[in-house]
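PROTEIN DATA CARD
Card holder: Solute carrier family 25 member 48
Chain length: 306
Origin: Cuculus canorus
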Amino acid sequence: MDSFQLQDFVAGWVGGAASVVVGHPLDTIKTRLQAGQGYGNTLNCVLTMYRNESVAGFFKGMSFPLASVSVSSSVVFGVFSNTQRLLSQLRYGDPTRTPALVDMALASMVAGFVSVGICTPIDLVKIRLQMQTQPYTEANVTLKPTVPGLPVYRGPIHCFWTVLQKEGIVGIYRGVVATLLRDIPGYCLYFIPYTFFCGWITPDGCISPNPSSIWLAGGVAGAISWGTATPMDVVKSRLQADGVYLNKYKGTLDCILQSYQNEGLKVFFRGITINAVRGFPMSSAMFLGYELSLKAMKRDQTEIKP
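Structure generated from the sequence above:
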């Protein structure tokens, strides 16, 4: 693999870090709405969190995503870009040729499939850390942490090893089916709209999109992708939050059925507003970080060549 191909992984890492810094507070609110109990709406969730946990509550568990999401974004963007080049090479004999829609869709699906192996444990730990201060009420019984006054997990590493010791690899990959059903179509609705809108709003004659075009196209793509992914995101969040105090769901289908029976169809759209709103700035930051760092690396590479 030459340096040109590696640049996509490095740029993806930069974009991932930028998106976490921008989007983590909204991600925490989204997780509480989807997997928690007692919140009537988004505003009520925000006020309750602030009243009970202050500003720090919105950044709970951020250190782990900051390190890990950067890696997963690196893999997603690297796999997506290199798969596109490979398909163009195989189909047209030119890896630099603009990919067709079917090539972008296939590359997006490959990136989504590969990312699940990394993202599932990351999301599990993040959600467990976000949810462990949320009381779990079942049959009017409030379940509390093992040690009164202390959280269940002391941090991301402790959370990971605790789940691994108690539940094994299956526990670490709890929610993997729901993640697959979310991410494979989700990345198609992420990269394809971005490419379309970026090309549409970039002025004619420009070799590459300007930062404002990247920001807007990335935000629109993120809102579309996260908005449509909400039903499976709800299921994934519930499955992964399950187990902090007790195990309620036997699997993806059981989670879907129980959620529907207890709360109706509307439960699968819980958090859709915060998902779409959060998707815009996160994806704007993601694509800006990716495109600008990629452009900088290519410029530096050109300048050092004799």
